[in-house]
Description:
Layout: E1 11-18, E2 23-29, E3 35-40, E4 48-50, E5 56-58, H1 61-71, H2 79-94, E6 100-102, H3 103-117, H4 119-129, H5 135-146
Parallel strand pairs: 4-6
Antiparallel strand pairs: 1-2, 2-3, 4-5
Helix pairs in contact: 1-2, 1-4, 2-3, 3-4
Amino acid sequence: MRCPKCSSEESKVVDSRQAEDAIRRRRVCESCGFRFTTFERIEEMPLLVIKKDDKREPFNREKIVRGLVRSAYKRPVSSEDIETTVANVERKIRQLDSNEVESDVIGEFVMQELAELDDITYIRFASVYRSFKDVSELEELLKNITKK
Length: 148
């Protein structure tokens, strides 16, 4: 690993620890003695989302966050709940073993998570995601929720 101070290629690891999504390594340059930190992460496949019009765009977790924040407005859903939900959805997507996923699949994963979190947030999200044509479709969703 190149030293950021003297650019020497000779350094040794003096400490390794697991960080959130990486391994944190403390290093010391063998030439100048400078100590520095590096992080080692797994390089994940870039995810592409296949939209309804068959266009592809990079996966953007912030879009899910924004949708959840809107759906959870004035509901007892914390930002931590939203972050956990998004992390669970992203984990499910990455477990699909493909670097392309249809937007419908993402929406269904979000719905599964919201069904466990908060009914009103679930209904709000579903009303936008499923684009209900009339009240009967919403009534059907409400019947399914009340059966829980």
